[in-house]
Amino acid sequence: MSHAPASSCPELHAIRAGIPALSRRVHDKPLIYLDNAATTPRPQAVIDAVLAYESTFPANVHRGVHTLSGEATHAYEDARRRIAAFFGGGELVFTRGTTEAINLIASSWGEAALGEGDEILISALEHHANIVPWQLLCERRGCHLRIADVDDTGALRLDAATAAMTDRTRLLAMTGVSNALGTVTPITEICRTARARGITTLVDGAQMTPHMPVDVAAIGCDFFVFSGHKMYAPTGIGGLVSSKAMLDSMPPWQGGGDMIRTVSFAESTWNDVPWKFEAGTPNIGGAIGLGAAVDWLSTIGMDNLANREAALLGDMVSRLESIDRVQIVGTPTQRAGAISFVIEGMHPADVGAMLDRHGVAIRAGHHCAQPILERLGHSATARIAPAFYNTSEELEATEVAIRRVIDVFG
Ligand code: PMP
């Protein structure tokens, strides 16, 4: 018996009606969108906010004396204030997303703080965005990348993370939720342990922010990074939340307009944070859209959303477990956002393509997290990533589609 929310719930019906992409048909079937870990569909409230900027006050920020520029600056900075508040406060630097935020930290903080023989500790669960920038930094600075392993269920345990910390560990950079398996890590406890040892901490929040209330101060990390498009905002916007003291202590990253206070050919001086890290014209419409997305999420309530998603995930796991030849990859007890699976004798790409014919959108592949799949003995999986707006009817239809795919494939 399913405990997942049904589409008959009037509140859910209204939410779904406010997300235009959900009314699409694909291959003449109603779209069942279960690829939310890759990106989330945009609600009309977000689209309207971006449209208002683009059509009514499409001006640059912090520059002009005219009315439109004042309106754009106000909307951009007010979005920053609301987004930072959504994460419990702190300084918010806008970036293109998680990847750019991690590269900013690696180049600015990393170049200044790390040297020969220092260690950066990540986990086996990381997305490539939280692996490759550190590999590049290690090459430049002569430091070493260390990996905290997971257990065979794909769970990262506090003792494994603690055991991997050494006297040379300078940075711990770990995800709060794995995009490939859905594992929720004990990130607050890990950060507490690391900070007690004087280790700087970075949390990849890309898969946390869409699924749970996030209070960066309560997590207690030095850097928290996230992507807007995974939390119902447009692509090309996201951010880094940190403290003013930390950001003040870091050298600028990219140079250009807006990040300076004065420029002469002899020398330049820098703007205050957060603008010191926002060189050039930013993604103004994106920031305004992200502001609208956090307002929209706040109205729904992150606790409500998390409760709904827990029910949906439990329901989908049970459905997958009931199908012969399906193996779930990664069975952590704490899960959010995603379920990876394989079907015996079928390539995940074929599973994804055949489900698409049924209108079901999932992801298949390595999910930009090749090491964790390899750790669990796979090169690719199919991944179902539901969100709170999905319904139990959609999950049931997905189960039926998977059974059909298996029957047809033989
Ligand atoms: N980290 C995690 C855990 C992710 O899921 C993703 C996106 N799949 C990223 C980092 C990179 O995010 P973006 O591509 O938005 O920069």
Largest sheet: 7 strands, mixed
Overall tally of domains:
2
How many strand units? 17
> How far apart are the first and last residues' alpha carbons, in Å?
28 Å
Q: Quaternary state, please?
A: single chain
The CATH topology of the largest domain, please?
Answer: Aspartate Aminotransferase, domain 2
Task: Please name the fourth-level CATH homologous superfamily of the largest domain.
Answer: Type I PLP-dependent aspartate aminotransferase-like (Major domain)
Q: Give the ligands present.
A: 4'-deoxy-4'-aminopyridoxal-5'-phosphate
Reading off the top of the CATH hierarchy, the class of the largest domain is best stated as Alpha Beta
Q: Any low-confidence stretches, pLDDT <50, length ≥5?
A: none
Structural class: alpha/beta
Strand arrangement within the widest β-sheet reads 4-10-9-8-7-5-6
**What general form does the structure show?**
globular
In the CATH classification, which architecture of the largest domain applies?
A: 3-Layer(aba) Sandwich
Mean pLDDT: 96
Sheet-strand content, in percent, reads 15-25%
Radius of gyration over alpha carbons? Answer: 22 Å
